[in-house]
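Sequence in, structure out. Go.
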Amino acid sequence: MTVKDMVKITLNLVVIYVVGGLIMAFVYAKTSPIMFIKAKEEKEAALKLMMPEADAIAAIGEWSPHEKKAEYYAAQKCGELKVTSVTDEKTGKIKEEKECLNPEDIGYIVEGFGKGYSSYIHVLASVDKNFIVQKISVLGHGETPGLGDEIEKDYFLNQFEGKSADNLVVIKGETPDKIQAITGATISSRAVTEDGVKNGVIMLKEKLSGEVQG
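Output:
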């Protein structure tokens, strides 16, 4: 192979890499906003499910469990729900915008992360104004199929209802007032319970208990 052939091959490879990079950048630029909007809509739907009796859910702060960005929210009942019809400038369609007037907090929702066996487990937990857990949800994880992924099942999630932070402790075997570990997946169980949910509830109490009492 001559030097000329080597230069030609190198130039061809460079062109291929550049063109490939430009195509990937173009595809990402087109799909990224769509993915962002979809993720936002999915999160909003998940938040609503955490406390469906609320008229509005408002972000009130951020924290960083395991150096990951997470938010916490106030679930509110509106003294009055003002509905206004507005025209979308791009589509021309009429849509409704809702404004919550004189809102009253009826509870809180916290987003958290727990360090599991093979992934960080993304959770949501809702609490009432006394910081008693009402519901939890697992938004995402990469735990072992058939073992750790049991954290998504109702038999595990339903144990959290009515628990205070002091009761968010994993026990191997049956327990009347704590959280029973999933057989063969104690690490995943603790990641959800003691890392994701309990730390989130404790954080809420520290941040908001003074405001609640006041």
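Check: The helical segments are 3-50, 154-157, 186-213. DSSP finds three helices and nine strands in the chain.
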